[in-house]
Amino acid sequence: MTSFDPLTVEQGVAQEADGRRRTRSPRRNRRGRGLRGPLLPEGLPGAHTRNEAFAGYLAAAVSRLAEVCGPAVEQARFRATMVPEDLENRLELVRAWGAELVDDPTGSTRRDAQGTAVITIHRRPIEARCPIPSMLPDLVYGAVVEQWAELTGLTPEAVDPDYHW
After folding, report:
1. Exposure pattern of 48-58 as b/e (b: 16+ CB <10 Å)?
2. Dihedral sign, CA of 86, 55, 62, 73?
3. Mean per-residue pLDDT for 14-40?
């Protein structure tokens, strides 16, 4: 093989111009100057995306709420979205009335066609209200408690005595 013969590369296997295959290690990229492996090991917090981290915070908040409220929490569905679905309407309200008069949309509660409660927590509004990243799990839990209280008709303090927002 000369230096200008074309190569077809498919996930760790190079095929020469005459059809012969040669294998190479998927972790080795000596001359291509790319990464040889993952930048961070899987177990470290920085290896997760922001969406994955937020989903983990939401799962931890739901399990903590289940410890406080009991098995009724398992009947509801919890989901996370980036922003509220009615964001355009909220922005028009903010333009018309000002940001002080429009509530901060950290979450919403509704029932689906089968009657199951669906609690949606919005990631970006919660992150915007978070002064330091280490407080994000507590803010997610506070939003979950607020939405559960709205669903059950209780105050957040009645749902969880440790609630303090």
Report:
1. eeeeebbbebb
2. positive
3. 61
Give the contacts of 31 (CB within 8 A, at least 6 positions apart).
Answer: none
Helix, strand, coil percent content, the chain, rounded in steps of 5 = 45, 15, 40
User: Could you tell me which of 28, 56, 32, 31 has the C-alpha nearest to residue 43?
Assistant: 56
**Measured between alpha carbons, how far is residue 21 from residues 24, 36, 63, 80 in Å?**
10, 21, 51, 46
**pLDDT, tens digit, for every residue of 89-103?**
877 877 787 766 666
Retrieve residue 156's tokens: 């957040």
**How would you list the strands of the sheet with 8-10, edge to edge?**
8-10, 13-15, 21-23
Cβ pair 139, 132 in contact under 8 A: no
Exposed / middle / buried, residue 159 (Cβ in 10 Å: 0-12, 13-18, 19+): buried
Tell me what the mean pLDDT of segment 16-34 comes to: 58
- The structure tokens listed for 96 are 């018309």
Q: CA end-to-end span of the chain, whole Å?
A: 69
**pLDDT digit string (tens) for 40-77?**
787 787 788 889 999 999 999 999 999 999 888 989 99
Do 122 and 106 meet the contact criterion of CB atoms below 8 Å apart?
Answer: yes
How much is the average pLDDT of 148-153?
92
